[in-house]
Design a protein that fits this description.
Distance between the termini: 28 Å
Shape: elongated
Structural class: alpha+beta
Helix content: 25-40%
Number of strands: 16
Radius of gyration: 20 Å
């Protein structure tokens, strides 16, 4: 079944490697998987990555997004029927509620919002969470604001350099220290988990680091490469890095050199910095989004819907 699932994700309209079972299952011990496979005439018609939490079905608590996955054969009427069947199946299995994380439109390789229509017209769903993310359109980039340009000049003056790296341990030290000191938090992934995922997806997961003149890591970002979106999974800098423009020179290099190279990345349309809102989306992290907007990022919403069965 895993091979059949992964093959469908690969040819779907909105699938990414995060929806591949080799990614989803890395934290199988944390979530009770209840993913659904919908077939029509024996062939897969749709997939729903999901887990069970009491009498609630989530799509999927361990993923940034996890809505219905479909290929180009799916139609509006067909997707409405899918949700009717899913609801009946969930009722029969004792579920009382669904929380549904939509796949943002920037990840859609073809139009694929039939699920949103079905959520409203079949499920009577309502939006319960809305996060704001910052995204760059790579063929129509907005120029960096002056404070970001100033940071780049400062970084160059003190001899900071940027490059791709496999030193995940060094970056995780910077990341963990920064999250602990600033937010009292920890990364979603442990170092061992991210190294495992890197081994499974060596082309899709990349690490870029900023180093000082002595070669010490002072900043970095973990990148998830999907068919048309570059997504920053983690961004972090040390105290020294923050003072010397480590992230400014890092993103100047990544955005304006690496992923602007159409000979290497001909299909990349968007650069997504990820969300800048906390909790259920009502708490806007103003300093964080100011930084991302300073690089030219503008708003994309990550929405969650809910309905009762």
């Amino acid at each position: 079944m895993q091979g059949e699932w992964n093959a469908f994700v690969e040819r779907s309209r909105q699938g990414t490697f995060l929806l591949d079972r080799n990614y989803m299952d890395y934290h199988h011990d944390r979530f009770a998987d209840f993913s659904l496979v919908v077939r029509h005439k024996g062939r897969i018609y749709a997939l729903l990555p999901a887990n069970k939490d009491g009498d609630t079905l989530w799509s999927h608590q361990g993923l940034t997004y996890g809505g219905l996955i479909t290929d180009k054969r799916a139609t509006a009427d067909g997707v409405c029927e899918v949700f009717k069947d899913i609801n009946l199946y969930l009722q029969d299995n004792g579920f009382k509620k669904v929380i549904y994380k939509c796949i943002p439109t920037i990840y859609h390789q073809l139009p694929a919002q039939e699920d949103l229509y079905a959520l409203t017209n079949v499920c009577n769903a309502r939006i319960v969470v809305r996060h704001i993310a910052s995204t760059i359109v790579m063929d129509d980039k907005i120029k960096f604001i002056e404070s970001r340009k100033s940071g780049i000049r400062k970084a160059k003056r003190v001899g900071l350099t940027v490059g791709r790296s496999d030193n995940y341990a060094a970056f995780w030290t910077v990341l963990e220290n920064n999250l602990r000191d600033q937010y009292g938090a920890k990364p979603v992934h442990t170092l061992s988990e991210i190294e495992l995922l890197k081994s499974r997806f060596p082309e899709q997961i990349q690490l870029y680091l900023t180093r000082d003149a002595k070669g010490e890591v002072v900043g970095g970002t973990l990148i998830f490469e999907t068919p048309q979106v570059i997504h920053t999974q983690y961004i972090s800098a040390s105290h020294e890095g923050k003072a010397t423009g480590a992230l400014d020179i890092l993103f100047d290099y990544i955005i304006n050199n690496v992923y602007s190279d159409r000979s290497r990345y001909p299909n990349i349309k968007f650069f997504d910095f990820g969300k800048s809102s906390d909790g259920d989306g009502h708490e806007l992290n103003k300093s964080l989004i100011f930084q991302k907007e300073g690089f030219g990022g503008r708003g994309i919403c990550y929405d969650w819907y809910s309905w009762d069965l």
